[in-house]
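Continuing the batch. This is chain 6 of the set; chains 1 through 5 are on the previous pages. Same settings as before, nothing changed between runs. Recording input and output for traceability.
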Amino acid sequence: MSGTGRQLTGWDAATWRTSAGSPHLRSTVVALVLLDSAPDWERLRQRVERLTLMVPVLRQRPLRGVFGVASPRLAVDPDFDLDLHLRRMRLAGSGTWSELLEEARRVSLTDFDRDRPLWELVLVEGLEGGRAALLLKLHHAIADGQATVLIGLNLVELGTDPNPDEPEAPEAPVPVDAGAPEVSLADIVDNVRRGFGAAERVGEAMVALARGTLTDPVATWSSVLGTLASVGRFTAVPDGPLSPLMTERGTTYHFAAFDLPFASLRGAAKERDCSVNDAFMAAVGLGLERYHVREGSVADELRFNVPISLRGDAGDTSAQASNAVTIARIALPVAGLTIDERMQAAHDAVARWRHEPALRLADPLAEISWLVPVPVLAQAALASDVTTSNVPGPPLPLYVAGARIVGIYPLVATIGAAVNVTMVTYDGSAFVGISADDRAVPDIDALVEDVRSGFATVAGGPVGPADPLGETRPGDGTPKARAIREA
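Output for chain 6:
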């Protein structure tokens, strides 16, 4: 890293720009981590301090140049203060699930201080049953869903006692105290370097095109035209949502969440030779179809935003704790399908997108998006009906400062869609978080009931309550699945 930090590029930069330029595209990720008891505060504070040393981006602040036209640079904050990012509180009421979700909503809808590192962690104590929760909030420009899980793995422990033989955290990184002129100069240097790199790649591509035209013109130009058509599909701006019901968009949203046994969802997918993600998308589609029917409407298709991972070696955790996705926009049939047909439709649609040549150009296309006005980019986002994301998490029980984690609920901003449904798997359960635009979905309780019934039908087993604090298994304080089945 240089003396002026590193510049956000690709999808990270595009995410920053759109979230800053449109109130509809607020881009926050909140992980609601439910604990069986209150963790030891001092021990938690030490764990978070260590976390910021293991994951350097948590000590980096945005730096902006004089001209304000480039994406910001991230550099180590010379005034980093852990107490500005970590705090503890008790809810004003009696510690109910709805009160906790309302606090998570407030945290999500509150802007970051963009002169400091882009995260915060809130310990909420005094929940029903003596439980507690952590609300970890990150800006989507520095982490996607999988990166959030990877970041969290540096916080957790394997038992109530501290981890044995844990690697020592590195020394605190050297702070960067650069002014706007230095940042602007670094931006110019980086932009020129990227420009020369792009020109070099274009030159190499033209040479390859000329050589291919001479040696195998049919295959060469078929590939070129196929790539151009793929880029057209990738960048096409839809006219509007496909849902005849969820058409309005606002700047606020509400959260809901529930859990279900992961084995039942995985088993339903395996039975049909499909993936867990296919079953997940089928359940969401079925739930949204039922919500439309409840409201006296019919949606033949819905436009799904589906993150497609661009990650390489999953073992390289240092490289994985960042944004590494692109977004596929899929028109998925939802009306009148069997479970098998729903899973197969999801499977085929995602598979087609994974083979799109434009997928290899995701970051360059994101760079080019700087030439596109934010309102145009916002129009594409606002034309989405639902965003779905399926994030694999740790399969074994984990602890934080002596308290056991009993649930990890992903609560993600709608980012222009009417609904966001994200699932994280952990310790044998699938935890589903829902955010719904307040204008698009005036009655989130009805939506949640239908989505839960969709999961119950697809999984063929019980789905947990919409209030995980309201029902617990005897003895361990973990959520108890209530049998909700739909034929």
